Amino acid sequence: MDEMRGVERERGEESGNLQAYLFVPIKRWPLVATITAICLLLAVAYLRTATPIYQATSMIRVVSQPSLSLIPVEPQRGNQPTLDVGTAAQLATAYLTIREALKYVQTNAPNQMAPEVRNTLKNLKAEDLAGYISTRTQDPDIVRISVRHPSPEIAYLVANGIADALVKRLDDEARAEARAERIYIQGQIQRLQVQMEAVNSQLASLRQKVRVIDVDEEAKRLSESIEKLRLELQTQIALEDAALNAERNLRVWAGREAPILSVDVTVKDPIYEELKKRLAQLEVERAALLGRYQPNHPEVQRVEQSIQATLKAMDGQKSQYSRDRQVAPNPFYGPVRMQLIQLEQQAREAQARKEALQRLLQEAEARLAALPEMQKSLQNLIRQQMVLEQTYTNLLNRLYDAQIREAAKRGSVIVADRAFKPTRPVAPRKALILTLAVVLGLMLSLAVVFSVETLSISVEMPEDVRQITGVPVLAIVPLAKPAPAGAEILDFMTSRKAAAEAVRNLRTNIRFLSAKQPIRTLLVTSALAREGKSFLATCLAIAYAQSGQPVVLIDADMRQPTIDKTMGLTRTVGLSSVLLGQATLKEALQRTSLEPLKVLTAGPTPPQPAELLESPRLRNLLKSAELEGHIVIIDSPPVLLVADPSVLAPLTDGVLLVVQAGRTPKEALARAQEQLSLTGARLIGAVLNQVSPRTGRGYYYYRYYYYYYRYY
Length: 712
What we know:
The protein is of the alpha/beta class. Helix content is 61%, strand content 13%.
């Protein structure tokens, strides 16, 4: 149950903290409304002064074109794209494209264009126009060109001009590239023709001299054979070296191993095994005898003695295992010998092949050397002729492609869609800007409000009191203007005003606290002066008296007493007189127009009030006051100003701390709570006093009192 109550208490505290945070903007709603209104007015002013912007969008598409290659090795296979959408988008916003587009638009501007728009277009520069242009790619091959400008005519003219200029630029580049390739290929073809004529002339002369038709084939065949023989010879040399190295390593290892090994073998002791079998037989026999006889029977005793003797004999054996040395063949020696034999055979085979290949290579080289030098030259010329013919064919194919592309006069981009004249501006977006202004104003105002709330040094809400002192707020008393005195205070406490109801609510809460631990003497104090503690103590005493309970109100503030003035009494005889022994409590108590209420004023001001309160007579006075009234309410000076409350607090059953909303510093409240804790006083709770609409949320609680007593 305690755990459940603890969880509920934590939930309540979290809910209270959340409510406190939510109340902060409500409490400071004028600041929130002001900042939001300023942001909204700034947005409206911007919208009224901002120039409307119009947007026009044209669209281009990237197409595939044959790629250019100036390397005359083999013909181009298939077509590949020469431009991607990303590159096309960058080219659309390039300075050269914008300059050509602006020149085209300025030259071909429509005649029906307004004079001011024509002047604006005429004065435009390419570097200024770049800031109005943006592109967006759309897979797989679309680029959207958007132009934003205050003039709708300029926006759509420039958008179309950029598309046309980019298409024209890429067409010109494509034609120039094809032209350059054609010129280059033509030069290469002329050079090849000269080389081919020279090779053909030399080849014809050599053929006539040699008068052999198939000499070139023989030389070619011998050359290929020599190359193959050399490669195979290198392979056999590598195989032979590998086999010899492996054989050498195995022989070293085999030299360290013996074919026969002598090993130690562990075997079981036969005597121990025989005793173990004997013990098992005796245990079986004993189990059978126990099934027929008692354990003290002679037969059973005999078997038991035999078992003990057998166990003793087994203990006499040093070990149940014995070690023996045996001779066995080495399991690794045989496979190693077999592998050695195989490696020797491989080495011999590799050596035989190597010698055979060397003989064949010598024979082929000799045959090739025997051919005449003119035949070798003939072979080289034939090979050059074949290469030149293949290169010439490739260049002819490239030349035809370049001529076709040069005649086509088309680049890699075409116009997919043209822009039209916009009729509505795209910026500024009024609804969006106003919405953002409101949101920004709210966010900024909330930041300012919470910053002000965080930097606030005074106590304003009940949550502040609970967080600093750790005690509950027993009542929230609204501001009463003007503060009543004399007979007015009695009339005030009989009224249905919110402050009076708050005091009666305080009385009820103190009674609930008294149910657990009786409160007969209650000290009312505050952290600093002028926080309304004396007025609250007087009203609380009147509230108890109005309920029919005898009450004694003591003014212990002998430095600046106020209860006598509030109640219309005298200070001729009072608390100081009783403590000095000049009068008794009955003589000093003064009656009021409210029968159950008796008041002990401060009396004449003594020279040392704190030392007077430390007199032993104070404790006796409080005990006597408890006999005069059901509850004794003591008004004391502020905790942080004088030592009087620290003397009085330990002698009472509870301390009530009065906090003025919007005035009591948080640090002062914390020091007051710490001071009361040091004295060992029982701080039962606090009262948030003089709450106004601008100082605390508690004020709104008491608005309901007004409506309640108005209709009932």
